[in-house]
Automatic annotation (TrEMBL):
This is Adenylate cyclase, class 2. InterPro entries: CYTH-like_dom_sf (IPR033469). The lineage of its organism: Bacteria, Bacillati, Actinomycetota, Actinomycetes, Streptosporangiales.
Length: 151
């Protein structure tokens, strides 16, 4: 069984995706993942994540249903993935809110260092999860059972 790992990540809200993409080295490929994320706090190291790559969203969803799991909501997002100086960078776009950049690295100091390389300071970073980011925009994500880019 896979072990959960502490996830050292921070987000920078309301970014310009095209401008960021120009200064980050692109990571090729796309993948579908199944992730269980346990949020302990809003700190940079405040989440534990267990993730596995799966070959197909619909088949994985069917398998989970056969194991007795039921979806509480459907949520779409779009993600651009990059590698920069040893850190994983994700530009996440979600319906109804501005895009944000997520920086994930081997430790808090590395997250801060890579943020600085991109021109951001520690006070511009947040460890908030997506539900709390939606709340900042006045949207109760927990009450939305179907979140799509086109409705």
């Amino acid at each position: 069984m896979a072990n959960a790992v502490i996830e050292y990540e921070a987000k920078i809200l309301d970014v310009a995706p095209q401008e960021l993409a120009r200064i980050i080295i692109d990571k090729a490929g796309s993948k579908v993942t199944l992730t269980v994320k346990e949020i302990v706090s809003d700190d940079i190291g405040g989440a534990q994540e267990t993730e596995i790559t799966v070959s197909d969203f619909d088949t994985t969803n069917t398998l989970l249903g056969k194991l007795g799991y039921r979806a509480k909501a459907y949520q779409e997002n779009q993600r651009q993935s990059f590698l920069l100086d040893g850190a994983q960078l994700e530009i996440d776009s979600w319906p109804h809110i501005p895009p944000y950049l997520e920086i994930e690295a081997s430790g808090k100091a590395e997250v801060l260092r890579v943020a600085e390389l991109l021109g951001y300071s520690e006070d511009q970073l947040t460890g908030k999860n997506t539900t709390k980011i939606y709340a900042d925009y006045g949207i109760d994500l927990k009450s939305i059972t179907d979140l799509r880019f086109t409705e």
